[in-house]
Amino acid sequence: MTAISHPESNAGAVAPEISISEFGAQKALGILASSGKENAGVRVFIKSGGCSGYQYGMAIDDRELEGDTIVYDRGVKLLVDHMSLPLLRGGQVDFVENMMGGGFTVHNPNATSSCGCGHSFRTDSAQAPDGEGSGGCGSH
């Protein structure tokens, strides 16, 4: 593991690598409590694909892998692998509810464009992987 930070105890300090909103934390804590996994956290990661080039992924994970950055925010442990961190740095995990239901999303300052459904994004410095990123939101 490369870094551990506690944003709620660092008032006025450097911004955390990643954070979670109050509503997102409430939802995540409920899911983590019912997961049955001791010491679990929310793993936030980036994978290739989606209509804009990259796609967000989240999972309940009780493993801390070599190179992970671990952030504790609002009582939630967030785990980010070393490959995903540069694309997520400064982002905030949130939970949104709408007419289609609800789900977790990432408010990402690194994304320069995203698809209409909010599950995939692109940055200025990255092109969509070959053969990916050309479909609509249904191609996730």
Automatic annotation (TrEMBL):
<dbReference type="InterPro" id="IPR016092">
    <property type="entry name" value="ATAP"/>
</dbReference>
<protein>
    <submittedName>
        <fullName>HesB/IscA family protein</fullName>
    </submittedName>
</protein>
<feature type="domain" description="Core">
    <location>
        <begin position="32"/>
        <end position="118"/>
    </location>
</feature>
<dbReference type="InterPro" id="IPR017870">
    <property type="entry name" value="FeS_cluster_insertion_CS"/>
</dbReference>
<dbReference type="Pfam" id="PF01521">
    <property type="entry name" value="Fe-S_biosyn"/>
</dbReference>
<dbReference type="InterPro" id="IPR000361">
    <property type="entry name" value="ATAP_core_dom"/>
</dbReference>
<dbReference type="InterPro" id="IPR035903">
    <property type="entry name" value="HesB-like_dom_sf"/>
</dbReference>
